[in-house]
Amino acid sequence: MYKQQQFIQVFEYQTLYKGNVYNNVRFEAKYFDALLKLNELHGGKYFNPVYNGIRFNSYVGVLQVGDLVIEVLPKIDGYTSQKSQWHNVLIEMLQVTQELQVNQIGETNVEQQSIHLLDIYFDWFLREVETLIHKGLIKQYYKETKNSLALKGKLEFAGHICKNLVHQERFYTSHQVYDKNHLIHQILSLALSVVERFSKGTYRYGNCKSVQLNFPEVETILADENTFKQVTYNRKNDSYKKVLELARLIILNYAPNVIFGAENMLALLFDMNELWESYVLIKLQQQAKGWIVKGQESKLFWEGKTIRPDIVLQNKATKIQFIIDTKWKNYTYDSISINDLRQIYVYNEFWNAKEGILLYPSPNETKIVITGKYARNNYIGKIGLVTVLDSKGKLNANVGRDIISFFD
Asked: Which InterPro entries match (predicted)?
């Protein structure tokens, strides 16, 4: 009999204290200790330990420790809202940035507030595997080295002498095998075992076991980043790309039995600063008609070191360029960093840009709050606010058009 999953929702920068009750769930010492170990495993980046508690930072998403699921949601300070609202905002933002393809699992499931991000990703993965099974799983050649009663392939002399000194009727050989027991399927099998482990006691467990039953028996492996680098794609296995991306996400974020005890743990978290930057970039690319929109463009700065603004805009007609540096944090005049202003100046210089903008999220307004001129070169620096939510409290779908209005 498996324990029913427990569920806590928190906002970024919120603190959970050991022993306190949240959403009718007690944050027990075993969860606190496990999360400290999990955070340590990931370089301490997910949250900051405080006395008898943990304070989340800019990472949003979901963590699972044993039977406890913690969903960390984004939020703009000063905006009163339901957690369910920001749950939907996060899912939609992940969908737009291609971190999540909600249409693969059905919109109706997403609308249920009992469905959290791990549910969505696990269901998506299982559906992708099911689709591959129905289409027919591919076979590949791989090298197999083992003892056999017949001389087949290449005789491995060193291994043969070592292993068959007594059993001279056997041959230790290497030969090519063509079947479904290859690296790609071994990776998928490992990911299925992780999903099974985290689905016990949920509606998904039976579905996962059904998929595993229809999946071929393959060699059990341990996987890390290098394992995924060994996979090469061709026309035959190109259909596996998406499911392998999901498997990679599941496997590399899984931390079983970390040092201290028996709690299975998995963290599927996204840096909200990077997610906001990606969302703004994609919306600009979709909605900035008459503009060339570039992201991740870097230039050499000093001795092999480069600089990279978040977004570069170029007007197709005038060829004038503008710089955008996105900031996912609450704007106040005192919060303006001199380092951020220096960055805008340098970006203007290296990209020969007319002006640069520090772009902050806002709960309810889109406007330029400050326009200033640098003391040299007449470069212009602006501070802009763009509303994240529309009048109905949903994610602002027109954020790209709103930002372009700053340059008219």
From this structure: McrC
